[in-house]
């Protein structure tokens, strides 16, 4: 794997070769990474995996025509062949009136922000084994746990570098550490499974492995002997482990490409109330040690905090340079990409701000409802906003969380769900996308 400076140099060299070969513009992206993962099951070592790889991709423009390809061979001979192939492909590609690099005046210049996302990422398998074993032992020690699907620990480091023919050539490194456990409780047909995990940029920020294991065990035991809720319209409360999933359809609906194609249920919502007053959704690529923090986006644009929902109102779209040209707007620094193909748009460190009430107060007046802590399937229609997911969790009766429930479906339309949504005050920044406990009135629950 190359160093950051070497990766920048290789990407810039590839762009220069493309320009010499006749490309009007070009960009190149290098991605390299190395990771180690150890898996334990029932106290025995089940797997040790080490992966390393690097790849560089070239995108070349000839007029409004473009093409891209990638290689894992970083030799001069491979670069020459890649350039020849991509430029020839671009000359034969169909014209795209919106194609092109990001505006030069929007590229990140000067020193990048300090994000503190790299601690070196090194870890020996022996240390990872100890961490995984601690997690599994703690999970299996919970009364009621009867079997294990295993526990794992991982550590890795990645390098990314982007160069464009507009003179941009920058890169950065990031590390990652993780621990997880998954166990079973009960016996026979009544067995229940659950899990827990945590990831962090710095090893010092990673949750204690034993705490992760205990959480997995306690979650599995709490699911034993589930009932089915009755069917009907009722309040649904989303646990923080699943509530952030409601932000995914929101990001898809405000993607500039979806807006340009007119395939979004929020097509006419710009500048309009989408959530209740007080709700705030923020994307922050510059959060220190954030799991998706980055100094520039996939087109080289400077990144910064974006308030996507402000006091319930939708403030804008997430746009690449191409989508921005098509819509007559400016790119927003949300481009993401791999080494092949054009960029898309996505959020980074996304969160919904905490509300003003505790989770206990949020459910205190619910006579009958459901508390969801696991969702199944991907039943979301991005064009209409229709939402239907398999779910399990707990029953809410007379303001209290009571018995476990399973085999139910929760459904609604995201437009209505967003307007009815109320956040609690328990936001924690544990994942790349975070939200507090959320309550939504009037959802349809299909149970018994």
UniProtKB/TrEMBL annotation:
It comes from the Bacteria. It holds the Pfam family PmbA_TldD_1st. Signal peptide: none annotated. Transmembrane segments: none annotated. Residues 26-90 form the Metalloprotease TldD/E N-terminal domain. Residues 231-447 form the Metalloprotease TldD/E C-terminal domain. Residues 131-224 form the Metalloprotease TldD/E central domain. Belongs to the peptidase U62 family. This is TldD/PmbA family protein. It comes from Sphingomonas colocasiae.
């Amino acid at each position: 794997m190359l160093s950051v400076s070497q990766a920048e140099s290789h990407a810039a060299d590839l762009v220069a070769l493309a320009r010499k070969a006749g490309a009007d513009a070009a960009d190149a992206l290098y991605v390299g990474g190395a990771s180690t993962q150890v898996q334990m099951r029932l106290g025995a070592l089940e797997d040790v995996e080490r992966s390393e790889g690097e790849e560089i991709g070239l995108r070349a423009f000839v007029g409004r025509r473009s093409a891209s390809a990638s290689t894992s061979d970083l030799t001069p001979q491979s670069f020459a062949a890649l350039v020849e192939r991509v430029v020839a492909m671009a000359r034969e590609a169909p014209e795209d009136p919106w194609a092109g690099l990001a505006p030069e005046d929007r590229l990140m210049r000067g020193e990048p922000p300090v994000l503190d996302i790299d601690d070196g990422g090194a870890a020996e398998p022996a240390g990872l084994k100890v961490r995984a074993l601690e997690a599994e032992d703690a999970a299996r020690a919970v009364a009621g746990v009867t079997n294990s699907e295993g526990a794992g620990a991982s550590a890795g480091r990645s390098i990314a570098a982007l160069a464009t023919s507009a003179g941009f050539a920058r890169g950065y490194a990031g590390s990652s550490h993780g621990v997880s456990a998954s166990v079973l409780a009960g016996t026979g047909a009544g067995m229940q499974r659950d899990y827990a995990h945590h990831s962090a940029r710095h090893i010092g920020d990673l949750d204690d492995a034993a705490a992760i294991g205990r959480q997995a065990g306690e979650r599995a035991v709490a699911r034993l002997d589930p009932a089915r809720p009755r069917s009907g319209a009722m309040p649904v409360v989303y646990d923080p482990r699943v509530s952030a999933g409601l932000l995914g359809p929101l990001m898809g609906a405000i993607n500039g490409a979806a807006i340009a194609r007119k395939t979004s249920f929020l097509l006419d919502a710009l500048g309009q109330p989408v959530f209740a007053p007080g709700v705030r959704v923020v994307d922050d690529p510059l959060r220190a040690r954030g799991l998706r923090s980055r100094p520039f986006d996939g087109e080289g644009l400077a990144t910064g905090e974006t308030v996507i929902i402000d006091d319930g109102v939708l403030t804008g779209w997430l746009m690449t340079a191409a989508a921005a040209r098509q819509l007559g707007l400016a790119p927003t620094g949300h481009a993401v990409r791999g080494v092949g193909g054009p960029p898309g748009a996505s959020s980074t460190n996304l969160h919904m701000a905490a509300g003003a009430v505790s989770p206990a107060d949020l459910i205190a007046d619910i006579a009958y409802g459901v508390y969801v802590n696991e969702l199944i399937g991907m039943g979301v229609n991005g064009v209409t906003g229709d939402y239907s997911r398999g779910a399990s969790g707990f029953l809410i009766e007379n303001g209290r969380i009571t018995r476990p429930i399973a085999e139910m479906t929760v459904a609604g339309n995201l437009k209505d769900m967003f307007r009815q949504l109320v956040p609690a005050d328990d936001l924690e920044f544990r994942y790349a996308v975070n939200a507090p406990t959320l309550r939504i009135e009037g959802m349809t629950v299909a149970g018994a």
